[in-house]
Every structure is written in C-alpha cells, then in structure tokens.
User: What shape does this take?
Amino acid sequence: MNASRLIKLAGKFGGYSVARAITAGRPRILMYHRFSEASAAGHVSADEFERQARYISKYFNPVTVSRIAMALYEGEVLPKNSVAITVDDGYEDFYSIAWPILKKYKVPATFYVTTGFVSGDLWLWPDQLRYLLERSPESGNRFDFGLFKVQTPVKAGEFERMFWRINQALLKAGNAEKLRCLAAMAKAWQVELPKDPPEAYRAVTWQQLEEMQAEGLEVGGHTVTHPSLARVSMAEARNEILGCCEALDQNLGKSLRSFCYPNGTPDDFVGGQVELIREAGFSCAAVAFADSREHRQRYAMRRHASSSDQFQFLKAVSGIELLGMKWRKAQRETPYE
Ligand SMILES: [Zn+2]
Assistant: This one.
C-alpha cells in the first residue's frame, strides 16, 4: 500500500485527530492562491473553500501569520492548534469569494499582496504569459525567444504543459531578461498586452483591502512587482521590499505585517535580503514550501500547500504532512548499526 492510501485509511479511522493532538503545539501555515465560484483548474471553488473554512473553525484556532510570529519569536501567547490561512498575490477573487466565507466562520487570514499590481501599475507576468500563449499564431512556425522555443500552432492538449515549461524557464532567468522575453513574444505575435489585466487576472483594490483589514485581515507584503528576489540586484531587492512596505503603510496605515517571498522556493531569495525585510519592519517572512524545520527561521517560515483537493487539505491542516516530514528526516538521520 502506498503512503497516500495509508494516510487516507488512517484518516478515516481517526488519524487526523490523532495527528492534530500530537501537533497541537506546532502552529501551521496553509498556502492558497486563487478562488472561483465554480470548480476551475488552479482555483479553489467557493464550496470547497467553505468546507475547509468550516473545518478549521471547528477544530482549530485560526490566527494570522504575524500572530504566530509574535508568539514564536516574541514570547506572546498562542492558543493550541493554531492555523494561519495565507493567500498570495493580491487577486480580486480573494475579496469577492474567499473573504466572505472566512468572515462567516470568523476565520482571520493573511493576504500577501503585490503592491504594484494593486496600484494598477502592472499585471502579474505568469498571467501575461498565459494571455500571450492563448493568442499565439494559428499558422505553423517555430519561434525562438532565446530562453525557450515555441512551435505554433499550440495544440489545446499541449497548452498547460507548454505554459509550465515556459513559466519555469522564465523563473530561472534574470528579471529583466524575463520581461524582455515576454515583450518579444508580444511583438512577434502582434499581440497587444492591455495596460490593465483582463477580468480573470484582476487585482483587489486598496479600498477593498482597507475594508478587509478593518474586519481582521492581515495584509502582508509580497514585493512591488513579484520578481524572484534571487534574480534581481540588491538595489532592486531593496526597492521591491521597502517599496512594498511603504505602499502598504501609505494606503492602509501602519500595522503589524508579515512578508512572503514571490515564488518562495529556496532558490527565490538570498540571505542578505533578510536584513531588508527586517529593516522594512515586517514581523517575519514566509516561504512557499514545508519541511521538518517548520518555523525555526523567522524569515523563512514554512507553509503547507492547500488546494481544492480535500485530502491535501486534511493532510496539511491536521499535521500529518508535517509528521511525515519529521519522520522521514529522522529516518535519514538514523545511523546504520
Ligand atoms: Zn506570488
């Protein structure tokens, strides 16, 4: 029997509550991105999110990330079974779909916003890539954009695979090179990228953020333009981090806020940037992966991915995923007799 089936079976027989009890003193952070009214790829539907919010309000103590940071690093008190919901990027669907559900169940959350996106200065580059690919030429041709090649016409069945392949190639590139590539695609395919994002990729507004903040939402920082911070100069990183905090303070007033690295893998930030995050006054910083180290690093607090998949949600929230990571680490460290 594989591990997933074993966990599912254990869950049915009370495994989730056992894991919850074992990990009651270990606050967990869940990570979300997009929401939709009906089921859609890459989105958590309103129905599924409501099930998850209800579950959290029933079995856990939902808190913000800054509250966890104040407890872990500043000695404040935190209730047992604390869980923080985090949502990245700053899309409008958080305001229209997720927040009304969270309010209904009195579940606070931390919303990491890209401030340039909220201010209407840009739309997020993966959305631009998707927009461009959807408008790629119908004719047969091979386009070489340096970092990647595209064979047109792009067949419907290959779209997602191609999107992710290019996405990964762009993620590894320098920020300026990435933007140059997107501009080259638009030019070669004669696609005009509108100044404002189409409705599907729309950002929340400052006014909506202000309203939610007054209702208990922590609005955290996620840079100004969402680059991978490992692929910008130190001066650019400074503008991205301090500029983000400044925009938040200007538009929403001063408040305790945490920070979250765009993309958030270990390859998406460098050690020296912690100083900038601290200087900006952020309470802590979150990454986009989880491992057995949990929250040992204040500026790299681990997050567990949640999704529309109930099993992944239960595994992440109950602590089974964390226990599994700790168990695997212990196995690796057990010396051979
Ligand atoms: Zn992001």
